[in-house]
Amino acid sequence: MKIGLFGGTFNPIHIGHLALAENVTASLGLDMMFLIPSKIPPHKSGSGIIDPVKRLKMVELVAEGLGEKFKVSDYEIAADGVSYTLKTLKHFRRLYPDDEIFFACGTDIFASIHKWHAYEELFKYANFVVVSRSMVSFGKMLEAIPERLHDIVIREEQFAGEKSGRVILHEMPPVDVSSTDIREVLEASYRKANLPDVVYEYISEKGLYRGDE
Ligand code: ATP
């Protein structure tokens, strides 16, 4: 099987996240795609990050409309301590020892891969699928990462079915949206912005992102 993992703060989940999840799932022919909200992202400061249980709930509401390949994992939110990706990859490798695993992320995130906890070990457990985001081109991302990683970077059409160890560059039409922009819009004027309907309904109902949390 081909198993996709898509981790994020999802603060809140938006149409750019959906585009990535759906596009990667279709293009790589994934059998399952797990959306994995993180509890305490190691690379982000704690401020402005709302309660993990509410972020998880919004991801669940969105996943309900995505079809049966899409699953939500509370592994990081339920675990103790910081959400290290290494721990998550080891967990999914234990669940799927013989399968191809793909961890999806944007170029902005992968550009600092060498700052992640024990980053060289990550590739033992999964492939990475890196999606172009307008603020960081593939070229800029490649310049930012250690040169020795360039050997494992391939274009999607070169992928030969490895279970782990590759960094696959995945092109998709850019969806120029971020949670930061959405939080700003919500704080200023409480409009739906680029949110899925169910997420905006939940945010309105609970009065989230009003700037007073
Ligand atoms: P923030 O603005 O709060 O930093 P974000 O919008 O970047 O958040 P995250 O939850 O931090 O969202 O991102 C989770 C993952 O989704 C990352 O790998 C990120 O690169 C990717 N991602 C986020 N927005 C988009 C988008 N519009 N298009 C493609 N990938 C995206």
TrEMBL record:
Gene: nadD
Keywords from the named record: ATP-binding, NAD, Nucleotide-binding, Nucleotidyltransferase, Pyridine nucleotide biosynthesis, Transferase
Entry's Gene Ontology BP terms: NAD+ biosynthetic process
Domain annotation Cytidyltransferase-like: ranges: 5-184
Family of this protein: Belongs to the NadD family.
Protein function: Catalyzes the reversible adenylation of nicotinate mononucleotide (NaMN) to nicotinic acid adenine dinucleotide (NaAD).
EC code(s) of this entry: 2.7.7.18
Gene Ontology terms, MF aspect: ATP binding; nicotinate-nucleotide adenylyltransferase activity
HAMAP family: NaMN_adenylyltr
Protein name in the entry: Probable nicotinate-nucleotide adenylyltransferase
Gene3D superfamilies noted in UniProt: HUPs
Keyword ATP-binding belongs to the record: yes
Lineage, top ranks: Bacteria, Pseudomonadati, Deferribacterota, Deferribacteres, Deferribacterales
